[in-house]
Amino acid sequence: MSLSVTALPRARNYEALPIAIFLVLALAPLAASFGAETYLLGLFTRVMIYGIAALALDFICGYGGLVSFGHAAFVGIGAYTAGIFSAHGITDMAITLPVALIVSALFAWLTGTVCLRTKSVYFIMITLAFGQMIYFVAGSLSPYGGDDGMTLKLRSTLFGFPVLQNDRALYYAVLAFLLVSYLLLRAIVSSRFGRVFRGARDNPTRMATIGYDVFRYQRVAYVIAGCLGGLAGFLLANATEFVSPSFMSWQRSGELIIMVLFGGIGTLHGAIVGAAAFLLLEDMLGGITENWKLIFGPMLVLIVLFARGGLLGLAQSVWERLRRG
Amino acid sequence: MAEPVPNPVLRIENLRKNFGGLVVTDGVSLDIKAGELHAVIGPNGAGKTTLINQISGTLEPSAGAIYLNGEDITALPPNKRAELGLARSFQITSVLPRFSALENVALAVQARSGSSYQFIGRADRESALNDAAMEALTEVSLDARADVLAAHLSHGEKRALELAIALAMQPKLLLLDEPMAGTGPEESERLIVVLQKLKGRFAMMLVEHDMNAVFALADRISVLTYGRILASGPPAQVRADPAVMTAYLGEELE
Amino acid sequence: MSFTLLIVQTLNGLQFGVLLFLIAAGLTLVFGVMDFINLAHGVQYMLGAYLAVMFYALTGNFLIALIAALAAALLLGLLLEFTVFRHLYDRDHLEQVIATFGIILFLNQGVKVVWGAAPLSLPIPDMFSGTIVLSPGILYPVWRLMIIGSGLAVALLLYLLVSRTRVGMLVRAGATHARIVSALGVDIRRLFMIVFGFGTMLAAFAGVMIAPILSVEPGMGDSVLILAFVVIVIGGIGSMRGAFIAALLIGLVDTLGRSFAIDILRLVMPPSPARTVGPAIASMLIYVLMALVLYFRPAGLFPAKGR
Question: What topology is assigned to C21-296 in CATH?
Answer without folding.
Answer: ABC transporter involved in vitamin B12 uptake, BtuC (1.10.3470)
